[in-house]
Amino acid sequence: MSFSNDRGTAFHLPHAPTRLIGRDRDIEAVSELLRQPDVQLVTLTGTGGVGKTRLAVAVSERFQSDFRDGACFVELASLRDYRHVVSSIAQVLGVRERTDQTILEGLRSAIHDQQLLLLLDNLEHLTDAASDLAALLSSCPRLTLLITSRVPLRIRAERVFTVQPLSTTRHDSTKHQEPVVNDDAVGLFVDRAQAMVPDFMLTAENFGQIAAICERLDGIPLAIELAASRIRLIPPDQLKSRLEQRLHELDNGPRDLPERQQTLKRTVAWSYDLLSSGQQIVFRRLAAFQGPWSLDAAEYVTADDVNVPEAVTALLDHNLVIRAGEINGIPVFRMLETIREFAAELLAEHNEEFASHRRHAEWILKSVELPGYDFGAMSSTEAKRLMPDVRAAIDWMTERGGPEYDPSLAIILRSAARIAFSSLFSSLNEAANLIEPMVERTRDEVSLSRVSALELSGWLHGLRGDAERESACVLEAVSIATSHGPSSELSYSLARLGQIRQQQGAYEDAMQQLEEALAIADNLGDDFQSGFILMFIALCASATGNHQRSIRDAERSVNILRRTGASPFMQAHSWNTLGIVRSAAGELSGAAPAFERAIRADDNRWTVALSCVGLERLALNHGDAGSSAKLGGFVDALCTRLNAFLLIPERYIHRDMLASANELLGDERFQRHYQAGRRMTLNQGIDFALETAAQIRDHGSNMNQFGTDPSDTLTRREREVLRLIAQGHRNREIAEQLFISPKTADNHVSNILGKLGVSSRTEAARYANQRGIVDSLDT
C-alpha cells in the first residue's frame, strides 16, 4: 500500500484554555535546542502533572511559523500498541493509505521533503516505537519531533529536556507578609483560583498559606490547579490543613482534561502501570523513606528477588524518583511527596507495610552503628539527612503498632537517640524536637530505650541551664538501667550522675559513681566507654586538688580514644579535658597545646567554645586580659548561635574570666575587646584562638611578655579567698566566712591555683606570703 498527502488537511495545535505561567525560561531553553541545525528530536520528560504537554504546545506555537509545512499535534495516550504510533501520525497528517507499501514506508515517502514539526504527546507507554521514529527521522531530514514522555526514548538523535516542578518558596503560613512576585507556583494558584472566584485576591494575609499549599504539592502544576479549583468551597487556611493527604483531597478535576489527568492519583497511577512487577515492588517499598536515600539503602529496605539498581534506573526514567544530589560523594535520591503518598497507599494495599517499615527501622540502626556513645561519629550532614526517617519510623511504630511492635520500637528509639545527639551540637532546637517526644512516648516503660531518651534529655536540659530537670532525668535513667543489670547504658548513666554530683560539690559521691561506671565499662571490654568516663574522673580529681591523678587519667582518655578510632568530636573533647586539668594544675604551657589540638581535631562550634574557655583562662594568666575578653565574647556568640549554656565547670570558668578581665581592663576597654570577639565569624574566632594558644605555648611560663605578675589577674574575691588559704582555712570554712556555696569556694580555689601556676594550696599560701598579697589586701 502507499500514501498520498491530502494538502487540504489543516494542521493545528490544541487550544490552551488557560495561560501558561512560570515557564518562560523553559520555553526559551527548549526553543534554543530546536534552533540547533543538527537537532531533530527533543523529548520533554518529567513527572506526571508537571506540565510537559502545555510546555510543548507553547514551544510549538512559537515555532510553527518557522516550519514551511506547519506544526501538528498527535495525541497518543489512548493507544495501547506501539505499532499503531506511525499509523496515528499518518492519520493526523491526512496521509492516505494504499496497498503497495508498509505504513512506515508510505509515511516516509509522503513527508520526505516536508519541513514539519510533529508534537507527539504521551509516548511513555509506547517507547518500543522508538526504532520506527528513528527510521522516520533518518529519511525525512526536515522533520522535527517534539515529544512528551515520562521516560526518554534512548535513541541517538534524542535530546532530553527534563521539565521541573514550578519553583516554590518556603514561607511562614502563620504570619502576614507581602507577596513575592516571582513565586511561580503561587502565581499559578492565584490565576486558577480567580477563574473560579473572579474577586479572589492575593494578600499579605493569605500569601503564606497559599505558598505553603504550593510547597506541600511539590510545585506540580496539575496538583496546584486541582487545589485552586477548591477555592469556591474551602478558604486557603482550611485547604492547607486538608492537604495533608493530597491524593484524596485533589479529586474531580476539570472535565475537559484527559481522564488520566482528572485526579492527581490517576496521573501518578498512569506512570506506575507502565512499570514491570519488580519495579512496582521497589516503588511501593521506597515509600518507607521520608528523606533522601542511597542505592544501598534502597537495596536493604526493598529486599527481595528484584534487581534494585535496574528498578531505580527505571523509576528515574519514569520520573517517579528524582536525584537529590550527593552526600559524601554518594548519589542520593528521593520521591516527590505527592508521589510518595501514592506509593504508601499501594504499600498498604499489598499488605507490605509492616515488613517494609521493619526493614526501614533496621536500616536506621545499621546506619548509626557507632562505637559506644560516640555521638560525634556521625557528621551533622548525615544526621540531618537521617532525621526525617527517624521521626517517620518512630511515628509509624507508635501510632500504628501495638505491643507486638516493641522490639522494633526499641531499635528505633536507641538509634534515634544517637542520631539526635549527633546533631545536638548544630541545633539544640532540632534535637529537642526529637528527644522530648521520645521521653513522652516511653513514659510508662522501664526499657533501655527510655534510658537512652532520658540520658539525652538530661544533656539537653543541662545545655540549657536547667540543672534540676537534668538531674531528674539522669536519676531515673540510673534507676531503670540498674534494674537491667550491667550494661553500657548503666555505665553511661552512672558516669553522668557522677558528673552532676561533681557539679554539686559532692566529690566523694561523684568519684564513687564514676569509678563504678568505669568498672562496668572495663568488664564489658568497652574501651571507648572507659576512655569516655576517664574524662569525667579526671575533672573530678582536678576539682579535689588531686592534679597528679587528673592529668594521668586525662592523658589515658586521650590515648584510649585515639586508639579506638573515636570521632574527631570525642577526641577533641578529651584534649579539652586534658587542657582543663593541666591548667588547673598550673601547667599552663602544657595546657595551651591541648586546647590547640582540640580545635584542630574538630571545628564543631561546641568543641571550639569549650577550647576557647580554657584559652580565656590561659590568656588572663599570661597577663593578656584583652585577648581573654575577646575570646569570651566569641564564646558567648557561639553559645547564642547554639541556643545553649556552657557545661559546668566551663560555665563557671568562663564567668569568672569575664569578670576578671573586666576588672583588669575597666568597662570601656573590656567592652571594646568583648564586642570584637562577639563579631567574629567561626573561622575568624578559630584563627584567633589558635594564635593565642601558640603565643602562650611559645612563652612557656606564667609571666607574659611584659613581665606581669600572675597575681595581677586575680579578682578581688579571689584575693579574699587566697588570704583565707594563706591563713590555713579549708574550702568549707572559706565558704562559711564569705557566705558563698562550698562549690563556689572550690571553683575559686581551683581558679587561683591555675592563675598562680601552682599545684597545691600550700604553694599558693607560700606564694601569697612571699609577695605580700595578703597584707596588701588588708590595707
Rg, nearest Å: 35 Å
User: Quick one: how many beta strands?
Assistant: 9
Structural class: mainly alpha
| Order of strands in the sheet with most strands | 3-5-6-2-7
Number of helices: 37
Determine the N-to-C terminus distance.
123 Å
- State mean pLDDT (0 to 100 scale): 81
Percent strand: 5-15%
Task: Walk me through the structure.
By secondary structure, the protein is mainly alpha-helical. 61% of the residues lie in helices and 5% in strands. It contains 37 helices and nine strands. The strands form three sheets. Strands 3-5-6-2-7 form a five-stranded parallel beta sheet, with helices on both faces. A two-stranded antiparallel sheet has the order 1-4. Strand 5, helix 5 (130-139) and strand 6 form a beta-alpha-beta unit.
